[in-house]
Write a structure and sequence with these properties.
Number of strands: 0
Helix content: 55-70%
Order of helices and strands: HHHHHHHHHH
Distance between the termini: 34 Å
Shape: globular
């Protein structure tokens, strides 16, 4: 399912259900819901979340920096010939990696930065860094599309928000939005493997992402979501 569909469906359904159950909809809860709606696809470098977080101009900047570093290593005398040539070629060659690999590299660099320089935001810096490291090395629809990740993400939010005002809203919103993303992906032909290493697949084979039929199924899900939002935030107050 497309990223924009995940965003609308997971966010809309989560906030509507929380409102109907009497949970206060706070700005932090909305932010966690939005992030969690897209978070399972962080293992896909071309997903909506990763492309927005690591745009094309940032990749171009990284490529220019790597080429500059390669030139510097060649002329700076850091290593004796021919090792300076080998070192500069090694660094420079990284700039020619595909965009997918470069985004993985950026994710790892950001994770290192969060570990090293963002202690003031503990434990959120550690949580974000761990998510980035894991997501940069696992295959798409692998670990991030399992029930283990739903439980893990919910637990991280639970312990991180313990003691915070309206902290319960954060882990409920995050866990529900994340789970709805996986449920939406289970509608596709590929489906998900919720409990690896068990081979069981959850898939309803209703659509394939990017096809005409897939677009129709996504539009139906979006319309149903908008109806739920309308009921939860407008019509329910009249009953």
């Amino acid at each position: 399912m497309m990223g924009k569909s995940h965003l609308i469906i997971s966010t809309g359904v989560t906030l509507s259900v929380m409102h109907l159950l009497g949970h206060e909809i706070t700005i932090p809860a909305v932010a966690v819901t939005v992030v969690s709606a897209l978070l399972p696809d962080i293992d896909e470098p071309n997903s909506l979340l990763v492309r927005k977080a690591i745009p094309e101009f940032l990749l171009k900047g990284l490529q220019a920096a790597l080429i500059g570093a390669a030139i510097y290593l060649y002329f700076a005398g850091v290593a004796e010939p021919p090792w300076n040539i080998a070192l500069s070629l090694l660094v420079g060659s990284v700039s020619f990696l595909p965009d997918r690999r470069l985004r993985h590299l950026v994710m790892l660099l950001i994770a290192l930065g969060l570990f090293a320089f963002a202690e003031a935001y503990d434990p959120w810096n550690v949580i974000a860094a761990c998510v980035l490291v894991v997501s940069s090395i696992v295959p798409h629809r692998g670990l991030t599309h399992t029930l283990y990740s739903v439980v893990g993400w919910g637990a991280l939010l639970y312990f991180a928000s313990a003691g915070m005002q309206d902290g319960d809203s954060l882990w409920i919103a995050g866990g529900m939005s994340y789970a709805l993303h996986l449920l939406a992906d289970s509608l596709t032909q590929r489906g998900i493997t919720p409990l690896p290493p068990l081979p069981f697949k959850l898939r309803f084979k209703l659509m394939s992402t990017g096809t005409k039929k897939g677009g129709a199924v996504e539009n139906i899900c979006i319309m149903l979501t908008l109806v739920l939002v309308l009921y939860a935030f407008v019509l329910s107050s009249w009953v």
